[in-house]
Amino acid sequence: MDHDERRRSITAAAWRLIAARGIDAANMRDIATEAGYTNGALSHYFAGKDEILRTSYEHISEATDRRIAEALGDATGLDALRILCREVMPINEEQLLEARIAASLWPRAMYDEQMAATNRRTMDHWRAQMTVFLEQAREDGSVGDIDVSIVVEQLLNMMMGMQILGVLTPGETSSERQLEMLEQFVAAL
Questions:
Q1: Element (H, E) at 144
Q2: Residue-wise over 87-106: b if at least 16 C-beta within 10 A, else e?
Q3: Each residue of 97-136: pLDDT tens digit?
Q4: Overall pTM surpassing 0.85 (yes/no)
Q5: Angle 133-137-142 (CA atoms, 0-180°, nearest 5)?
Q6: Between the CA of residue 28 and those of 36, 37, 78, 98, what are the distances in Å?
């Protein structure tokens, strides 16, 4: 196993701990045990817990963006917008796991500049993609004369809210309910 593979396995171990027991449970000793290493061995791959958490946060963003890119294919307009939103919303086990981890890390992202930068890049990327898709929908007549920047912010706020509520109140914010909210929002455009 090479250096990058070991970093990924340690990050995956941190993910599992955060998802199962929360960020406070992700101490270096438990991460090492979960990854199958000694506590001291982690220092060969990460400077400390903060670096592991930053890498975990980056990995969530990258994984979501990869999923979006794969799912989009040649889709445009409202079809592409729906795809992007569905890949961010916690509507399956993988996305719910990512939402649990992201929600656990958001408080750190408010104060950790590297994590805040990761968050800004992700949000800026999604804003840009949504803007293109909504402009395409406006051009093909699928939506009316909307304020694209406001609609993008409404969608981002709705998706981030779904991540929080999907984790905290999964019964009320089920995947079916999330999809219904998305479809009603898009239909109103």
A1: none
A2: bbbbbeeebbbbbbbbbbbe
A3: 889 888 888 888 899 999 999 999 999 999 999 999 999 9
A4: yes
A5: 150
A6: 12, 10, 44, 21
